[in-house]
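Worked example 2:
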Amino acid sequence: MIKADPAPPEVTGSDSVTEAVEPRASRSWWRLIALLFGALVFLFPFYYMIIGSLQKTQNTSLSGVLPNPANITLQNYAEINAAIGIGKAIINSGIFTGGVLLATLVFGILAGYALARLSFRGRGLLFALMLLVLTVPFQLLIIPLYVLIARNYGLANSYLGMIAPFAINSTAVLIFRQYFMQLPEELFDAARIDGASELKVLIHIALPLVRPAVLTAMLLTFIGPWNEFLWPFLITKQQSLQPLAVALANYIDNVAATASNPYGAILAGSCVLAVPAVALIIAFQRYFVSTNIGSGVKG
C-alpha cells in the first residue's frame, strides 16, 4: 500500500505579512542609522565651535572635544563684546540685512511677476540678460560699483551705500518668476474680469499662492548680506557703521592676539555671527514646502 505524501503546511496570511515586513523594517533601521551618522558629522563643527568658544584655556587636542566644567567660561564673549561692541555691530548688520531684504522682496516680486505674467516687447531678451548677470562674479563689479556709489553718489560711510549694490537680486527674481509661471491662468483671468488691476492681482491673488517663494527668497537674501564682508569693508571706514562680519574681521586682525584665549575669542565671534542664520533656518524650515497651488482652481 502506497502512502500519500503529507500535504505541505499551509502558509497563513499573517506569516507572509511578517516575512515581508521584517526586511523592510531592517532596511528602515539601517537608513535611520545612516541618517543619524550623517547628522552627527554635519553638526560636529557647530558643536566644536560652541565648545571652543567656552574654553578658558585653549585646548585643540581630542580631549578638548568633551566639555570640561573647570575650563568653561563666558570670558571670551565678554572680551569680544568689550572690543567691538557686539550690540552695535548686530544693529548695523540688522539694518544692512533688513534693507537688502526689503529691497530684494519688493523689486524681486515686481520684476518676477512682470517677466512671468505680463506681455511686453523684449521680455525674452530681458530674461536672458538677467540670467547672464547671474554668471558675473560680484568681485568683478566691485571697482566700478565703488566709483559709482562712493565718488559719484557720495554714499560712502552710509547704510544706503552698503545696501544699494544688493537691492536687486537676480536669483530672487528668477525664483519669483518660476513660481508665478506655475500659477493657473484662470485665477488671473477671473480677477481681471472682476475689474482688478494688475497690482491688486499681484497682491491679493498671486502673492498668497507663492508663499514658499517669498520664504525661500528671504532666507537666501538674509544669509548673503548677513555674512557679507568685502563690500561693507570697502564702503565703510567708520567703526560705528561696520556690520558684525567686518567688526569681527577687524577684531581678529588687530585685537584677538591680545586676548587671554585668542582661539576661544575667534570662535565666540563665529558663534555670534552664526546664531541668527541658524535660528532663521530652524524657525522657517517647515514652510519650505511647495504648496499645491492648483487646488485654488475649481474643478
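Residues 212 and 290 are 6 Å apart (CA to CA). The longest helix spans residues 13-53.
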